[in-house]
Amino acid sequence: MSGSRDAIQDLCSRSNVAVVVRDAAGADEALLATSHAPGLADAYIDLRPGTPPRVVVVDGDTRQDLERRILPEGVSLEVSLETSAHVVCAAVESSLAARAAASTKAASVPPPKTEEPGKVETPPERAERWQTRASLFASGADFGAGFRAGIGAGLGLNYGQGRWRFGALFGVIGYPSASVESENGLASFGLVGFRAVPLLEWQVAMPLTAFVGVGGGVDWSQISGERPPPGSMSSPTQRVLEPIATGMLGLRLLLGSGISALFALDADVALTHHSYVIQTPEGNQPFFEPSRVRPMALAGLSLSLGGTSEPHRTRNEARR
């Protein structure tokens, strides 16, 4: 037994492995299944006379075979001891190398990321379908007494993300009082209009959107006599509220940062007929009759207030 101890300890010292050798006292290989001494590996060396020399080495943790070898017969005991020591130490060194490789691989795998407590991933924002915009524009119209310039403001609303969208425009337009001259008489005429127009919008290209709509509103007009015609009597200021039907066709051109240029043609139709007259000794005489059909042009700027300010990009445009 001392020869086995010396040979194994000498060879295994190169791997810095401490070796403990015990006499099996005639026990068979089954000793390895019942002996669970702590260590890297357990080895059984059988050098009994009359049996072939053998070496069995098992892993200390898994109890799986690391080496199982039958040595040549007919050699001296010293050679058998030396050969057994080589077999045991080679198996131990192989087990050490395998464990080192497994540790290196485990260290190279990063630990799984853990989410910080209270941190919840928010889903990506969905594109907003409602958009609003404010508009400021100049306008020009003819009410039957020549071209008049005015100014207006509007609030636009549209829904959708495709090429075709539904929308609406709510606006107010004011025309300052201006002179109306007829029959050598002079009066001033002013008007304020309120409109609500449902729209259908079509995105022609990335920066350009066309729209068309039909709606209605009311006009509040006022006419005041400045100088009555000769032979007539002055009349008090007249104020009239009349219903209006309107149609609109326009374009909106995106300039950037939510600002668009706005251009539109409008046609208003007065649903009631009004005529202003003067009183003369011969009776009432026509003085001014506003047109029932009133063409109008608009030009101004539109600013996005909320939702998606950029026009919808189609798949074909995105591919380009």
What does this structure look like?
- By secondary structure, the chain is of the alpha+beta class.
- It has two domains: 2-104, no CATH class; 130-308, Porin (Beta Barrel), CATH 2.40.160.
- It has four helices and 13 strands.
- The chain has helices spanning 2-12, 31-34, 77-108, 315-319, and strands at residues 41-46, 54-59, 65-70, 130-142, 147-159, 164-182, 185-205, 208-227, 238-256, 259-270, 276-280, 283-288, 293-306.
- The protein has an eight-stranded antiparallel barrel.
- Strand 11 and strand 12 (283-288) form a beta hairpin.
- It is rod-shaped.
- Residues 314-320 have low confidence and may be disordered.
Provide key terms for this protein:
alpha+beta, 16% helix, three-stranded antiparallel β-sheet, 320 residues, single chain, 50% strand
How do the strands line up in the largest sheet?
Answer: 4-5-6-7-8-9-10-13
CATH class of the largest domain: Mainly Beta
Structural class: alpha+beta
| Major pleated sheet | 8 strands, antiparallel, barrel
Shape: rod-shaped
Q: Which fold name fills CATH's third level, the topology of the largest domain?
A: Porin
